[in-house]
Amino acid sequence: MKTLRKRLTVTLLLTLLLTWAAVFLCQQYAMNEARTGIRDQTLVDSANQTILSLRRGLLDERPDERFKLPPSSHFRGERTTVQIWSLADRRLALRSPESPAQPLNPHFDDGFRDSVIHGEIWRVYSLSDASGQVQVQLARADSVLRAETVAAFKRGLVIVTALFLLLAAATWIVVRQAFRPVNQAGEAILRRAPFDLAPLPLDRLPGELHPYVQSINALLLRLQAAMDHERRFLADAAHELRTPLAARSAQTEVLLQRIAGTPAADAALPLRAVAQRTARLAEQLLDQARMDAASESGADFGPVALDTLVVLLVRDCEAAAARKRQRIQLDVQACGARGDMDTLGVLVRNLLDNALRYTPEGGQIAVACGPGEGGGAWLRVADDGPGIAPAERARVFDRFYRAPGANGGGSGIGLSLVAQIAARHGAVVAFAPGLNGRGVGLTVTFPGNFAPA
């Protein structure tokens, strides 16, 4: 997936490359034309000097009396050649040693012309004297100009490439710096707590992004209002239901005591189970509301004596275990975890309630905790109940999910609360073996020195 930064960088670099290439080619063309003009002007000046330096009677002298032209030293050592022709009889009067016997310009017209000499292209300039009797022909090999042009092109290409790379690096740095506020805003969002719906700050963000961020902030405000409304409704409903449900449970117990030993007692037992389940559901909904409120407010985390907390909650569960003739084995070692006392209490209580609820009468429950690695701690609750099928274990932490065939009367919220509280404390919940080859165990491992986001 291409990001806006990549697209912007690529677009700028392509534009820069095309512009740079166009400027470079235009510059090379202009420089080549200038070099050609300079060479041509040099040929013109040399021809004029040669015409002016010819002595009178040159054409009447015998060949053995004529002087020989030395090799040309013009054009900074380039290959050049000179011929002096008698126009009356098209006779070669003088020539430089490297000059061929045939005319450099067989048309004998004044001016510039390109001629092929020994299979090579030469630039020829011809100039006649005022009387029209003598013509000077000077030629220069085009290979020299081409070699200079190629060398100049290579030098320019190296310089242009180096400058382009510097500009590309500068462009990448500038674009990266321009997008730094956007990246910082994204990182700040990732570091937020799950229930942190505070508006995103607009400072340091580019003005083009303000409408989008403002729209997100408006959405966050609406989401915050909806969550607050849902949380208040959940807390109020659970709180309002606690009293009548507790009264209903008490009345059910009184009724069962009065009709004990009668045929109606068996018919009233399901009524007690429903009352207990409804009361537990209301209690767990209230726990959920409290945990959400604590998560949103960012309750301060501090050291919690996990072993003391476990002992207190196990003592609270002993009466319920005694009613089902269940045995609770307690094995605690001094250990602590960093977190919120209230929500950790909800976690331990739900683990114990889940074990008590699904372990049959006369069953056994083992509760243990101890210090972990790096200053952390671990908590394990295991039973010898029916257990949880491996295929169902991935879903038991979903809210309101109950495994098929579960007869414990649970509401499907307990383990969901356990998973949420563990995640808030940076802890890991894992399945462990049950007792006596049956049942299931749950282990919660708390890290050391955990700091909430």
From TrEMBL:
The keyword Membrane applies. Keywords: ATP-binding, Kinase, Membrane, Nucleotide-binding, Phosphoprotein, Transferase, Transmembrane, Transmembrane helix, Two-component regulatory system. Its EC number is 2.7.13.3. It is a multi-pass membrane protein. It is an enzyme of class 2 (transferase). One of its GO terms (molecular function) is phosphorelay sensor kinase activity. It comes from the Bacteria. This is histidine kinase. The lineage of its organism: Bacteria, Pseudomonadati, Pseudomonadota, Betaproteobacteria, Burkholderiales. SMART domains: HATPase_c, HisKA. InterPro entries: HAMP_dom, HATPase_C_sf, HATPase_dom, His_kinase_dom, HisK_dim/P_dom, HisK_dim/P_sf, Sig_transdc_His_kin-like_C, TCS_sensor_his_kinase. The keyword Lyase does not apply. It is found in: Membrane. It catalyses: ATP + protein L-histidine = ADP + protein N-phospho-L-histidine. It comes from Achromobacter ruhlandii. GO terms for cellular component: plasma membrane. CDD domains: HisKA (cd00082).
